[in-house]
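Customer ticket, subject: "Can you confirm the structure for DNase I-like protein?"

Message body: Hello, I'm evaluating your service for our small team and ran a test protein. I'd like someone to confirm that this is what the system normally returns, since I don't have a reference to compare against.
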Amino acid sequence: MRLCATGSSEGTAAARTASDSSAEYGGSRGRPRREAEVQESSRRRPQGCIKTSARLKVASLNMRGHTTRTASGAEQCKWNLINQVMRDKKIAILALQETHLSSQRLVDVEETFGNLIRICSSPDPENGSGARGVAFALNQRLTKQMKYEWREIIPGRAMIIHLAWSECRTLSILNVYAPNVPRENEEFWRTLKAANMGSIDIALGDWNITYNSIDRLPSGRDDQEAGNALSDLLNGLELIDGWRKENPLARSFSYQQLATGSQSRIDRIYVNRSLARDASDWDTTEPGIPTDHRLISVKVADYQAPFVGKGRWAMPTHMLNDEVVIKAMKTEASTLTERLRNLSVRSPNLNAQTIFQDFKDRLSTCIRNRMKAKIPKSRKQVERLRDNVAELLRSKPMESEALEDWERRVGPEVALLQNRIMNAELKCFKFRREDIALRHRFQSETVSKYWIRSNTTPLAS
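Agent reply: Thanks for trying us out. I re-ran your input and got the following:
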């Protein structure tokens, strides 16, 4: 076991003191501060206080190596894609396996994305750039003010990170990439159990073993001894499979063997029993990155934090240029004006306020419907394919059909649909990258909001 360095991503903040001249801030020079201003300043957050989100998205992905080949045959670093995935999907903490991230590669990645993501890496000690490797990627947009420390448990295979989520709560996350060979897999779990890891809130990664026969297609059970060793570890740490607890009979797979089409749920997220009620929105999706694994995620909430409401719906600014929305605005505004002009007697149910509220509700409904209609065809296709997969996996064998025959019939169809989903997601991901590159080309050298944001360190959300 090797203890690694402590990382901190504290931000700095400028504070206005009581002795500052108010003229510098747009007021009259020498004007004494009102009592209300003094009371307001006393309610400001104390300096050094941790300001973090009360709800975090934690995810895991086997990225299958450091680089990939583009259509032209050139090598592309996958960390460019990892950064986009974390931004688009609002992932705060991403556990990665099979990173192949050597010390030199880590330096190169940090030089490129140092302001956007922080990386804690445990490479393989024998072949850092060609085998195994696990890492945590922290989204600076969401975790900037979180102090953290991490350590290796088994180099290249397992590591732990402890994050100061709030002033009174720390989140401990275990990232694992288990061996595929049954005897090595069994020894791996026994080694982890013998390690002094302390309390674990979340354990996630590529486990390379399944418990339940429905976690494989075709159905099957893995090595019994390795399964018992994993059970001992999970029971000792009081960890439970949250997704399976919420979906006891459902089928969902995170890995597809491209050669045979067989699928399994070897990528999983376990949460501590005490955290189970705070975990929700379990999801398994295509990452848009060339890999044979899917992205698994969960959202955890800190219910010790002050209650924060859902917020309010706001129309996306790009809808202001939509012809259908513009026409609807004019029509609804004309109707509003006409109704207000014809209003003669005011009543509790019919007055200027209720008419204006009705106008806003009608216009909001129109805009929402237009937004749904404008969903790209590729996105609609992906959703339709996912529905088809879910329908196939929910289906049951016919009366005279054995389970093995049903699996032989359904398995190839599911594999084909999953391949189509993966290819569609890769295409959508590529289009988004091209849009971002085009915007950067046009706006990166002009004084604009985009230029300012791209040249400043992101603040915590």
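A couple of notes from the result: The two ends are 34 Å apart (CA to CA). The longest strand covers residues 158-166. Feel free to reply with more questions.
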